[in-house]
């Protein structure tokens, strides 16, 4: 994963905040390297391409990462055919945008509704789309872990672009690998995301996925929009009081247009000084035309890539109601009950009193109809136990024998 926050107000307005999750595939070390190459290179390449609007920059950055991964795979037998998923989220003054390859996901939680903003590039989803059905209608014998698009295996890759989607106060965005969405359904993910502070929600989701088998790497990033008018906030300070409308940044003036404009104006002045009035007027008109053309081009680029009206993709692809209810918290209740059943079976140096207290608080909340409080209590019990397990488990040796320092 990678998180690249804007450094200041101007940076925020032009580039926004960037979040990336990548899930490698292939042999273990190959997949680890592929995902590392993606998360190391995409933020750097995105910031480097400031001559392009954000939507074009992020696509170019993903393509550049794909080329690096592909070249590394072609040049080494150990890494041949390696690949990685890649899900990028941009939070910009004009809204949220996602650039996506693979079956990692980007969700947006708004109120008690969670929406999947990315299309899974998996065999199941592609078959469902081809048949105008849902993935639940695809026969069970079709493997769910086969992805149809990733960074690395091929020299070129198609990148999905979604958005921009309007941002509201209270919106939460979740980026995750399929290590989370495999064990947990979207309703449970959304219910926890809606009920807990972002940090607790992320930890609870990882802990639950591990408790339910943890068959794959689990990566979770949660970004919360506290106030869309001060998304440029950093270290507790708001850089500005409001998100300003589109302005033309003179420092990003296209070099060709600037040169042509300067030549035209100089020619006009020169002709005026030598008495060629009509020529001077013509040059002045040319100068204005060039400038107008450049402004139209920039405005068009912005409207197509950065403005809310220029929407890309078809997001959201799935939408789920996640308001806590007795039915929705049943899985959480069962997990905590099963955890307590382990108390007599294992000699963990762990005080179960707090877990019992959390479960009691959850039952009391359910009796009072406060299902959100029950989610909070059950989630606390899960985190307490898993924290104890991590604290008393010896650190396993690295299972990678390959130096992943790629410079």
Task: Please give a structural write-up.
By secondary structure, the protein is α+β, with helices and mostly antiparallel strands. It has three domains: 2-230, PPM-type phosphatase domain (Phosphatase 2c, domain 1); 254-305; 320-392. The chain contains twelve helices and twelve strands. The chain has helices at 9-15, 28-48, 54-75, 123-130, 178-181, 186-195, 198-211, 255-273, 277-305, 330-341, 353-367, 371-392, and strands at residues 2-4, 17-21, 24-25, 83-84, 86-92, 95-101, 105-110, 113-116, 160-165, 172-176, 220-224, 318-321. The strands form three sheets. It has a five-stranded antiparallel sheet with strand order 1-2-5-6-9, with helices on one face. Strands 11-10-7-8-12 form a five-stranded antiparallel sheet. α2 (28-48) packs antiparallel against α3.
Question: In brief, what are we looking at here?
Answer:
The chain is of the alpha+beta class and 407 residues long.
Assigned CATH superfamily of the largest domain: PPM-type phosphatase domain
Count of separate DSSP helical elements: 12
Percent range of helical residues: 40-55%
CATH architectural grouping of the largest domain: 4-Layer Sandwich
| Average pLDDT rating | 82
Write out the strand line-up for the largest beta sheet, numbering strands in chain order: 1-2-5-6-9
Q: Output the structural class.
A: alpha+beta
How many structural domains? Answer: 3
Largest sheet: 5 strands, antiparallel
Distance between the termini: 18 Å
């Amino acid at each position: 994963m990678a998180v690249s926050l804007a450094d200041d107000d101007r940076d925020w307005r032009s580039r926004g905040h960037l979040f990336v999750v990548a899930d490698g595939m292939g042999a273990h070390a190959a997949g680890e390297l592929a995902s590392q190459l993606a998360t190391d290179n995409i933020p750097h390449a995105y910031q480097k391409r400031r001559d392009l609007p954000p939507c074009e920059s992020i696509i170019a950055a993903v393509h550049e990462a794909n080329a690096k991964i592909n070249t590394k795979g072609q040049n080494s037998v150990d890494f041949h055919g390696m690949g990685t998923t890649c899900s990028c989220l941009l939070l910009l003054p004009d809204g949220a945008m996602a650039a996506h390859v693979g079956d990692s996901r980007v969700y947006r939680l708004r109120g008690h509704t969670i929406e999947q903003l990315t299309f899974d590039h998996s065999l199941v989803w592609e078959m469902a789309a081809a048949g105008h059905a849902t993935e639940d209608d695809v026969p069970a014998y079709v493997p769910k872990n086969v992805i149809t698009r990733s960074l690395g295996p091929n020299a070129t890759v198609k990148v999905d672009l979604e958005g921009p989607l309007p941002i509201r106060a209270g919106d939460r965005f979740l980026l995750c690998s399929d290590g989370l969405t495999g064990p947990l359904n979207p309703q449970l993910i959304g219910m926890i995301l809606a009920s807990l502070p972002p940090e607790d929600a992320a930890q609870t989701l990882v802990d639950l996925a591990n408790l339910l088998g943890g068959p794959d790497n689990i990566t979770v990033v949660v970004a919360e929009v506290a106030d869309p008018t001060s998304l440029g906030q950093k270290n507790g300070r708001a850089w500005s009081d409001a998100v300003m409308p589109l302005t033309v940044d003179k420092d990003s003036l296209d070099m060709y247009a600037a040169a042509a404009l300067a030549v035209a104006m100089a020619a006009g002045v020169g002709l005026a000084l030598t008495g060629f009035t009509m020529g001077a007027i013509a040059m002045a008109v040319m100068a204005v035309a060039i400038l107008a053309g450049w402004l139209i081009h920039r405005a068009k680029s912005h409207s197509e890539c950065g403005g809310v009206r220029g929407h890309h993709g078809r997001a959201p692809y799935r939408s789920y109601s996640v308001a806590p209810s007795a039915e929705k918290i049943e899985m959480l209740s069962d997990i905590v009950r099963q955890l307590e059943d382990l108390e007599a079976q294992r000699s963990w140096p762990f005080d179960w009193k707090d877990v019992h207290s959390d479960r009691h608080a959850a039952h009391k909340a359910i009796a009072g109809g406060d299902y959100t409080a029950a989610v909070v209590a059950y989630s606390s019990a899960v985190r307490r136990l898993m924290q104890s397990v991590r604290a008393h488990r010896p650190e396993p040796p690295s299972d990678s024998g390959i130096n992943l320092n790629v410079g």
